[in-house]
Amino acid sequence: MKKMERPGLRLEFHLAALLLLFIGCSQDPNKGDVKAQPEVQVEVPVFSADSAFANVSRQVEFGPRVPGTAAHRSCGDWLESRLRTWADTVISQQFKTRTFDGKTIDGRNIIASFHPELGNRIMLCAHWDTRPFSDQDPENKNVPIDGANDGGSGVGVLLEVARHLSEKDPGIGIDIILFDVEDYGQPDDSPLPRVEDSYCLGSQYWSRNFHVRNYTARYGILLDMVGGKDLRFTQEGTSLQYAPYVVDRVWKIAAAAGFSSVFVPEQSKPIIDDHYYVNRLAGIRCIDLIHYDYSSESKFWKHWHTRKDSLNEIDPNSLRITGQVLLELLYREAAAG
Ligand SMILES: [Zn+2]
């Protein structure tokens, strides 16, 4: 994932913010993709922080999941086998892609579906590959990161969500999509000629080549860096631009569950992450839950793209809060029909 640099898109953001102000004043909240429902009493399972943490730990044990390595292959096989125990179908979408430094690599998006026959669907996604370098680290920038948070945490939460869905069927269609080759993007200080759209290669491929014909979902939620200490999600600009109703719904559910200190009602600048391409290319409204930290230089989680993105920095409670909000959302959507 990267910060957005193109001025045109910034302008778009300002326009979107204005539009949002307008919508906030005048539009009927019942319109849009997310149903504004009177809250119903729903029994929502309790998300297990320990299981999610074990899922993160297991991924880190494989080693950095850099595309083209044995660790990446083994971890991909493990993810598929775990998801097969819980989901109705698991599709392994293989593709070839070209990185900014001219390598052709094999990628694999993994799509686990619950009730694939239903038209009423929600997609949840994260990337499972890890960055081949630690370019934000003060030293040794060529070392691959562990990606405990950047990659591992989102996947760890989604595996635990999958386990819950298999235990208690909410009766709606849900797709868990693990994108590959998200984090092979060109570093800012790369001496090579600038390559556009060098991040998010797996989600770009999927957005142009769905795993099933005519795929659609009501909306999507992307998780990226959801396991760090002092977790803090802001309302990120690209999410607000494309899917303001989804942001609103998720933030309301989080507030009702008592997590307003994590899901803070503040806007932050738009970024390019997998959700950007899902919105732009696939036309599916998708938001990004991503750790934002004003006090860090990057404004992202402070260990972003450094060698400190390790298991020591993962707080199971952050995984729990993220996972619980997803479960609250899914089981409420199901109950609301
Ligand atoms: Zn990253």
Bound molecules: zinc ion
Outline the low-pLDDT stretches.
6-32
Name the helicity range.
25-40%
Binned strand content? 15-25%
What is the ordering of alpha helices and beta strands? EHHHEEEHEHEEHHEEHEH
What is the number of helical segments per DSSP (H or I, 4+ residues)?
Answer: 9
Structural class: alpha/beta
**What is the topology, as strand order, of the major beta sheet?**
2-3-5-4-6-10
Plain-language structure description:
- The chain has 337 residues and is of the alpha/beta class.
- It has a single domain, classed as Aminopeptidase (3-Layer(aba) Sandwich).
- Helix content is 38%, strand content 18%.
- The chain has nine helices and ten strands.
- The strands form three sheets. A six-stranded mixed β-sheet has the order 2-3-5-4-6-10, sandwiched between helices. A two-stranded antiparallel sheet has the order 1-9. Strands 7-8 form a two-stranded parallel sheet.
- The longest helix has 21 residues, at 316-336.
- The two termini are 34 Å apart.
- Residues 6-32 have low confidence and may be disordered.
- It binds zinc ion.
- Zinc ion binds next to loops.
Q: What is the fold's blueprint, element by element?
A:
Blueprint lengths: L1 E2 L3 H20 L22 H13 L8 H17 L2 E10 L5 E11 L6 E7 L20 H20 L5 E7 L21 H8 L10 E6 L8 E4 H6 L1 H13 L6 E6 L2 E2 L1 H9 L3 E5 L25 H21 L1
Parallel strand pairs: 4-5, 4-6, 6-10, 7-8
Antiparallel strand pairs: 1-9, 2-3, 3-5
Bound molecules: zinc ion.
